[in-house]
Structures are given as C-alpha cells and as structure tokens.
Amino acid sequence: MQTHPKKLLVIIAEAALEKLLVKEARHLGAHGYTVAEVHGGGATGARDADWEGNRSIRMEVICDEAVAQSIAEHVLNSYCKNYSVSIFLADVEVLRPGKF
Predict the structure, then answer these.
(1) Can you tell me whether residue 21 is helix, strand or coil?
(2) 89: closest CA among 59, 68, 71, 70?
(3) Residue 70: other Cβ atoms inside 10 A
(4) What does the domain layout of the chain look like in residue ranges?
(5) Which residue among 20, 50, 59, 63 is the one 20 to 30 A from 33 at the CA level?
(6) For the segment 69-96, what is each residue's pLDDT rounded down to a tens digit?
(7) How many CA atoms lie within 13 A of 85 on its CB side?
(8) Rg from Cα positions in the chain
(9) Which CATH architecture is the domain 4-99 placed in?
(10) DSSP letter string over 66-95?
(11) What is the percent of the chain where pLDDT is above 70?
(12) What is the β-pairing status of strands 45-47 and 56-63?
C-alpha cells in the first residue's frame, strides 16, 4: 500500500470563530476540513459547553506543509491574543493524496 505524507493541522478554538476559521482556511489553500464540537479543560480552566459562549470546536485540516504553516501562522497572529485557541501540527500519511 502506498502512502503519501501530509500535515494534520488541528485548531481548538472558541465556537464563535468557526465560520471565520473555515473561510480563512479555504482562502489559504485548504481543500477541506472537519469541525466538531468539543469540551475540555486545561491550565486556564474548563470549557464545558454549558452555555453558548462557552462552546469550543476542533477543526482538522489535512494538507501540504506550506498550507498548514500558512493557516497556523494566520490563526496565531489573528486570534490567539484575544481568544481561547490551541493549535498543533502532526505528520500524517494519506492513501488518496488528491483529496488533500
């Protein structure tokens, strides 16, 4: 089985940012994305989704490294100062590279 290297970009953010993040990721070269509602906690407390303003999303984008870096840098510079956002990258192998 032949695999192809890509990057997985994961952004965990306040749900209020979802539409902006999707629009900007597509504009910066993402072919697709997956978004799910999530909840959790960390050093600054918990986001339990117990009210509308306390909801979080997890957005995943599998793409080329340059696209992942571009999206991550944009999110870091645009939102991390004023919103609850976590970003990470991971190496992944895909079976159908044309989808990504």
Answers:
(1) helix
(2) 68
(3) 19
(4) 4-99
(5) 50
(6) 999 999 999 999 999 899 999 999 999 9
(7) 22
(8) 14
(9) 2-Layer Sandwich (3.30)
(10) HHHHHHHHHHHHHHTTTS-EEEEEEEEEES
(11) 88
(12) unpaired
Q: Per this entry, what is the length of the chain? A: 100
Are 47 and 55 within 8 A, CB to CB? yes
Long-range contacts for 67-76 (Cβ within 8 Å, ≥24 apart)?
67/7, 67/28, 67/29, 67/30, 68/7, 68/8, 68/9, 70/28, 70/29, 71/9, 71/11, 71/24, 71/25, 71/28, 71/29, 71/30, 72/9, 72/11, 74/24, 74/28, 75/11, 75/13, 75/21, 75/24
Residue entry with tokens 């991550």: 72
